[in-house]
Amino acid sequence: MNIEIAEKIAKGNKIYYANSKIIKSKLLKKNTKIKVYKTMIRPVVTYSSETWTLTAKDENNLHIFERQLLRKIFGPVNIDNVWRIRNNMEIDNLIEGADIVRFIKVQRIKWLGRIQRMDQARPAGKLLYWKSMETRPVGKPRQRWQEDVMQDLKKLKVKNWKEAPKDRRTWRDLAEKAKTHKKVAVPNDDDDDTCMCKPK
């Protein structure tokens, strides 16, 4: 897993454990707990995520971190007097499909829009179109940030990504659409909810 992402997940776990009694309190309503998670924990984990390039493993570990945390926050469910942990679909329903990976990808789309609207002479604009003259190492090349974001835009059927951001309202609506778009972030089929970031 990406070292930066692993460190952010560790920080998110620390925030949770420092406030677990409050977050898990039965006095808090479901919507309040979700707001606490989204305002206290998720921002710590996703800080600067608009610049991340995510691999499938990174996405999987982020999904696992979020699900395990939400399972601890909301606890098990009682079905016909039998207690069991909440499954992935139930966790997804709690956050209405707006999971942490989709959130990160929305942040990247927003950041791309800002770069496209700013003066291209600024460092961020130059870096977006900068191409290294060095030879890439042998083997499968690493995914670049721009290529990663382009894949998300392709799923959203965005064709003219260079011109579209100039219309702030259109680009903002696009970002809102991406928050719960099924194809933008689909969990891996081999997700077994085990990773190095598992809370104890």
Produce a short descriptive summary:
By secondary structure, this protein is mainly alpha-helical. Helix content is 55%, strand content 3%.
SS strand fraction: under 5%
Structural class: mainly alpha
Low-confidence runs: 187-200
**Looking at the structure, what is the overall shape?**
elongated
Q: Please list the strands of the largest sheet in the order they lie side by side.
A: 1-2
Quaternary state of this entry equals single chain
Instruction: Give the overall pLDDT as a whole number.
Output: 83
DSSP helix fraction: 40-55%
Q: Work out the helix count.
A: 9
Number of domains: 2
Order of helices and strands: HHHHEEHHHHH
Strand segment count: 2
Spatial gap, N to C terminus: 19 Å
Task: Characterize the structure shown.
This protein has nine helices and two strands, in the order ααααββααααα. By secondary structure, it is an all-alpha fold. It folds into two domains: 97 residues, no CATH class; 64 residues, no CATH class. Strands 1-2 form a two-stranded antiparallel sheet. The longest helix is centred in the N-terminal third of the chain and has 19 residues. The radius of gyration is 19 Å and the shape is elongated. The chain starts with a helix and ends in a 22-residue tail after the last helix. The C terminus is likely disordered.
